[in-house]
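user: can you give me the structure for this one chain? tokens are fine.
assistant: on it. calling the predictor now.
[tool input]
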Amino acid sequence: MRSRGSGANSDIPFRAFGGRVIGRIRDGVLVRRVGPKEHFRKLDAWPLGQVAADRARRLGVRALRYIASDGTYEVPFEVFLRDAQRLPFDHETQLVLPRGRWRFTPQPHRQPPQQQGLFEA
């Protein structure tokens, strides 16, 4: 049996404030699929709640990887914690780091599948 969060091939669900699964920890990297609702447009920044950040620290997360529609954003967790701006909200403080501080890998352009004509062999 694999222990939670340890080992070279660990893959565990990661829960945020309220117990909702927001990503997975894979080999020390918190991987999240993020959409436009998670992006703080006015600051052009990606967030992580304070409760989630504290839990990630306890679990030994080394990096964050956010998978968005335009590509993948990655940052070392210690850089995120050190440089993120703290925004207090009624329900929870959010830590936000501008997109320019993340390493960005664009989504490869995908060609739509070629469809054969009705009478082509």
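assistant: here you go. The beta strands are 11-15, 21-26, 29-33, 45-49, 63-68, 71-76, 85-87, 94-98, 103-106. The longest strand covers residues 21-26.
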